[in-house]
Amino acid sequence: MRQDETESDTKNNGVDAVDRALSLLACYGEEDRGLSLAELARRSGFYKSTILRLAASLERFGYLIRGEDGLYRLGPTLWRLGSAYRRHFDLDGLIRPELKNLVEKTGESASLYIREGDSRVCLYRENSPKAVRHHLVEGQRLPLNSGASGRVLRAHGGGDAAGDENIRANGHAISLGERDPDVAAVAVPLFGGNGELIGALAVSGLIYRFDETRRAEALHLLKASVERLQLLLGNDM
Q: Which parts of the sequence belong to the HTH iclR-type domain (predicted)?
C-alpha cells in the first residue's frame, strides 16, 4: 500500500503535509547528487502527483532544486541551515586541529560524533591519508547502538544497556567490527565547560592494522586531545 494523502491535512493542523515534505528530503543519501521523480516515488512510497506538489513548496524555499535534466537536487537552504547548526557548536576552530593531530600521529581517521535522538552524526571528520582507509563524510548519520562512538554517546547520555556502566567507569569504548566487519575504533567522551556531554571523539581504522597496540596508542592520544579541548572549552564558558 502506498503512503499518500488519505487523510486531510487539516485533521492534524497541517502536520501531515510537513511530515511528507520531510520524508521526501529524507530519501536522499550521501551519494545521491540528484533523484528523478520516479526514484523519489519509489523511495518515498508517494504518488508522483503528491511529490510534484511537495517539491514545488520545497523548491520555493530552497530545499530542493530541479535541474534541466529533470533531477531533483538538495538546495542551498539545507547548506545554510547545516552551516548554522555547526556554528551553534562553535567548535570548528578547536576540533579540527585536534583531528588533524590525531590523524598525523595514528595514520588513521579521526572524528567527532554527536547524538541526535537514536542516531549519531559525524559532525567533524579528518580522513586518513592512506589509500585504503575507513572513509566517512561529515554529516553522515549512523546507528547509536553500534560502534565505539555510538556506545560512548549512549552510555554518557543516560544509557542503561549492557556495558554502559563499564564505559562510564573506563572512560572509553572500543569496537571491533561492530558496524562494519573491517573497522575497529576507539572513542572517548568530550564534555563542555559546565560538564555537559558534547560528543564522542574517535579514531577508527581498518581492523587488520588498527591492532591492540595501535588502539592503546590512539586511546592515549584521544585522552590528551580531550584534556586540551576541555581546558579550552572551560575557559570559553
A: 15-76
